[in-house]
């Protein structure tokens, strides 16, 4: 069954285990208990890593998750070398974490899963334990998907934001935030907002790099020298672009009502407003991939792992968004 086959039913969402010593396993169990099949998904990992009182059932194929998810967490077993202690990651398990991600992507690409939701990983553990060569989760997924330019979007009901540059020092932003990168980000963002959200001409607000968007060159020249010319050229192609906007005045409620997504120059410019608005419910979405990928907007949280206090809200929102995207893509395919 192909994911793009318009006659096929929506397959369940694949949830990769992420770092098993973090909060990922307990969140999967909590999400399954709260959802009771409302969002069919299955967890790929080692059952030994789940909480002792976890209600789960092993499955032999993703299709079984459609029924099993009504009463338990469906588990597609993937054996790891070692058991884990919450909060104490093992380097011996690092390669298996990577292998689970590969397996999950393959299931989505084959159509056995309709989308991928990834639990958080710890990059240092993967690097030290398995020579992980990617700066983050997203870059590895882009490699697996064979794409050169992926886009990270954070989304909640009130706001969508895209950091054009991501995990780099602030001092490096002016060099990497350039016309080619911004244009590529605009094109990928617009295409996937149409594909997965049905926005045929999304309104895209673009934050200035400098305070007050440069204030006519008084506080920086990037806006005048290349941002405005680029925006005007793309408007002539039909893109609905707003800006460059002063970053400090574009995130209040009245301003947010005027656009569908905000493109920001660097990491904190994008993530501070969305985490302020919805700290627990934000979803990390990777645009530009040949498959659907979402992730909760939090880390492994080793400090609270195994204590039973982790909040599943972001994971549930991520699973729901992956399913909604899959349904939208299927409808667009039928059209």
Automatic annotation (TrEMBL):
Broadest EC class assigned to this enzyme: oxidoreductase
UniProt entry tagged with the keyword NADP: yes
Superkingdom of origin organism: Bacteria
One GO term (biological process): pyridoxine biosynthetic process
Localization annotation: Cytoplasm
One GO term describing the cellular component: cytoplasm
Binding site for a divalent metal cation: 167, 212, 267
Residue sites binding substrate per the record: 137-138, 275, 284, 293
Keywords for this protein: Cobalt, Cytoplasm, Magnesium, Metal-binding, NAD, NADP, Oxidoreductase, Pyridoxine biosynthesis, Zinc
One Pfam family in the UniProt entry: PdxA
Pathway: Cofactor biosynthesis; pyridoxine 5'-phosphate biosynthesis; pyridoxine 5'-phosphate from D-erythrose 4-phosphate: step 4/5
Enzyme Commission (EC) number: 1.1.1.262
Catalytic activity of the protein: 4-(phosphooxy)-L-threonine + NAD(+) = 3-amino-2-oxopropyl phosphate + CO2 + NADH
Miscellaneous remark of the record: The active site is located at the dimer interface.
PANTHER family in alphabetical order: 4-HYDROXYTHREONINE-4-PHOSPHATE DEHYDROGENASE, D-THREONATE 4-PHOSPHATE DEHYDROGENASE
Subunit architecture: Homodimer.
Family as reported in the entry's similarity comment: Belongs to the PdxA family.
Role, per record: Catalyzes the NAD(P)-dependent oxidation of 4-(phosphooxy)-L-threonine (HTP) into 2-amino-3-oxo-4-(phosphooxy)butyric acid which spontaneously decarboxylates to form 3-amino-2-oxopropyl phosphate (AHAP).
The protein's name: 4-hydroxythreonine-4-phosphate dehydrogenase
Source taxonomy: Bacteria, Pseudomonadati, Pseudomonadota, Alphaproteobacteria, Rhodobacterales
Gene that this polypeptide is encoded by: pdxA
